Q: What sequence folds into this?
């Protein structure tokens, strides 16, 4: 018994046919006439046929403004239906596009307020001058100027500085006086130079008794010096917090020195 073996033949697989593939096949067949002047684009969401003119690659003798046509007669009914239902979008050649720009208004910034004028303060010398001017009437009222001042050159000069405040180390009316700074300044106005300290001034003249003392002589006690104003009065720069003034002699046993 013989056996016959027959091999089965298989048909080659074919790609599935759809309206899109049919349209693409037809378009491909006609690409020979369309040439490089047109292009066909198939999208999965629809079908769009676009004819793009390419003047630079146009064949000789053909009009540069003419577009090749695609013969749709060979399309199947389904492909033709797709074309018929595809929306056609067109825009007129004279279409004008406009953009609404918001209006811009420039606002002038408000200038800052002017800076306040600086407050001017008086100098120390001016302040002391005003203080001295205010203090002089009161000092004169409380301690009247002795009659011995009139005609006495030393006391007349000394009386000008009543009210000048006591300042340790001071030697001028603007900067204040201490006791020896006051006496040396007064005598300097008369051309007489005295040493700077009270102890040095003690030895700068001749010691006289109280009975022989005259207005304008120096009156000294340890650590302090002033100018004798006659009777029981003197003028000096007392101590911190006080001013130059006429007052009663407070020392129990002062020394009187005559200069010149």
A:
């Amino acid at each position: 018994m013989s056996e016959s073996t027959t091999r089965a033949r298989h048909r080659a697989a074919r790609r599935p046919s759809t309206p899109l593939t049919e349209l693409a096949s037809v378009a491909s067949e006609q690409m020979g006439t369309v040439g490089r002047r047109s292009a066909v684009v198939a999208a999965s969401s629809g079908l769009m046929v676009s004819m793009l003119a390419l003047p630079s690659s146009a064949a000789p003798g053909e009009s540069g403004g003419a577009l090749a046509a695609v013969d749709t007669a060979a399309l199947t009914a389904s492909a033709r239906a797709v074309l018929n239902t595809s929306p056609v979008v067109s825009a007129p050649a004279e279409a004008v596009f406009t953009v609404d720009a918001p209006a811009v208004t420039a606002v002038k910034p408000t200038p800052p307020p002017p800076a306040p004028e600086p407050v001017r303060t008086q100098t120390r010398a001016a302040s002391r001058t005003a203080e001295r001017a205010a203090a002089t009437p009161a000092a004169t009222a409380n301690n009247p100027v002795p009659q011995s001042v009139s005609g006495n050159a030393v006391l007349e000069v000394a009386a000008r500085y009543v009210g000048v405040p006591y300042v340790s180390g001071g030697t001028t009316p603007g900067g204040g006086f201490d006791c020896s700074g006051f006496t040396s300044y007064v005598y300097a106005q008369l051309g007489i130079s005295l040493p700077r300290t009270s102890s040095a001034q003690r030895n700068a003249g001749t010691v006289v008794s109280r009975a022989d003392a005259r207005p304008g002589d120096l009156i000294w006690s340890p650590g302090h010096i002033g100018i004798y104003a006659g009777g029981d009065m003197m003028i000096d720069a007392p101590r911190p917090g006080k001013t130059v003034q006429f007052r009663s002699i407070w020392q129990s046993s002062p020394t009187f020195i005559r200069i010149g």
In short: Strands lie at 39-43, 46-50, 171-172, 176-177, 206-208, 218-221, 224-230, 233-236, 245-248, 255-258. The radius of gyration is 63 Å. The chain has a mean pLDDT of 74. The longest helix spans residues 124-142.
